[in-house]
Write a structure and sequence with these properties.
With about 120 residues, this protein is of the alpha/beta class. About 30% of the residues lie in helices and about 15% in strands. The chain has one domain (about 1-90).
Length: about 120
Amino acid sequence: MHRKVLAGRDVVTVGESWNVTTDTALPYCGRERKERDMLFQFQHVVAGWDSIPGKWRPRPLDLVAFKKVWTDWQMALEEDDWNSLFLKNHDLPRSVSRHGDGGGDGGNARPRRWRQPST
């Protein structure tokens, strides 16, 4: 793909994969292959899901496991790729849906730690 489409262009390319691992990422985004410059991986997201209903029943945050996933990815790609760093995207339930109170206010749930603006 690089040779036919991207060669000679000043662009940054990004790939997205729910199934890629630290062991399988470099063929998609390593410098030698020149396929992608950055990879969106979701291991840190999936680690917080229940095994059966998945993203619709998240488990409580395991901070140690969460940090380990990020560290493993940073170490695996540090010499050869950009690791995308994100917490949410359009495919996932909104943070307010996960951490909000639901409040019965027509879907406008507020975070549990809601604070009024200072102005």
